[in-house]
Amino acid sequence: MTEDAFFELHRDIPRQGPGTAEDVAWALSLIQQPARIVDAGCGPGADSETLAESLPNSRIDAIDVTPHLVDEARERLACFGPRVTVRVGDMRSLPGPVDLIWCAGAIYFLGVEAALNGWRGALSAGGAIAFSEPVFLSDPPSPAAKAFWRDYPGVGTEAALVKRIEATGYRVLGTRQVTGRAWLDYYMPLMGRAARLRTGAGPDLAEVLDEAEAEFARWRVAPDQIAYLLCVVSPE
């Protein structure tokens, strides 16, 4: 698989991972209204858009390492004017102080512990981090869930993830399972794009399309057993 082929598939779709506006609203309900937010790994800006709509008096700094996703997010978020900025940036070094770091489906690039420890200094007093991470919904995990996450090491149960969070000196304000429709809303545009790209696809792109379609097929086996856990946490 080449990076160019991967990004060819992942261009011009609404989201780069599962999630809904309701997930954002739930997270915001657990904290005081944040005045300044960083969306770390913003992708094409789906959650930044929801945050901006939900918090009209807040400033949002949307960051992603991938230039074409930043371009997509800039176009999507231009309607909010200067209170929402979008730029190429590295999640390892976030600006501060901020009241909320939002990181949907991207914390795995750093690892949960590394991210929570590294971002602590960017938070204002009373600030929070909201992030999503894969979890198994049963112990032992179902065969379908185990097969789906076979290439993602370290997946555990919700209880195991909470222990990892608390070991870094954070308290968990709330958790929410992200399953079902949130995943379908991500996959359907992606599979539609895969179908359009199939005709005339070269070997590298064909490999990427095959892998994406195989992942979708594994998800369809048991959509109620494949989950992210959306966690809202704050330093002790």
Notes on the protein architecture:
- With 236 residues, the chain is of the alpha/beta class.
- It has a single domain, classed as Vaccinia Virus protein VP39 (Rossmann fold).
- 41% of the residues lie in helices and 24% in strands.
- It contains nine helices and eight strands.
- Strands 1, 2, 3, 4, 5, 6, 7 and 8 form an eight-stranded mixed beta sheet that branches.
- Helix 8 packs antiparallel against helix 9.
- The longest helix is centred in the last third of the chain and has 19 residues.
- The chain is globular.
Largest sheet: 8 strands, mixed
Distance between the termini: 42 Å
> Which fold name corresponds to the CATH topology?
Rossmann fold
Shape: globular
Question: Short summary of the structure?
Answer:
The protein has helices spanning 3-9, 21-28, 46-54, 67-77, 112-119, 143-148, 158-167, 181-198, 203-221, and strands at 36-40, 59-64, 84-88, 98-103, 123-136, 156-157, 170-178, 227-235.
Give a quick set of tags describing it.
236 residues; Methyltransf_25; alpha/beta; 8-stranded mixed β-sheet; Rossmann fold; methyltransferase
Write the layout of secondary structure elements.
Elements: H1 3-9, H2 21-28, E1 36-40, H3 46-54, E2 59-64, H4 67-77, E3 84-88, E4 98-103, H5 112-119, E5 123-136, H6 143-148, E6 156-157, H7 158-167, E7 170-178, H8 181-198, H9 203-221, E8 227-235
Parallel strand pairs: 1-2, 1-4, 2-3, 4-5, 5-6
Antiparallel strand pairs: 5-8, 7-8
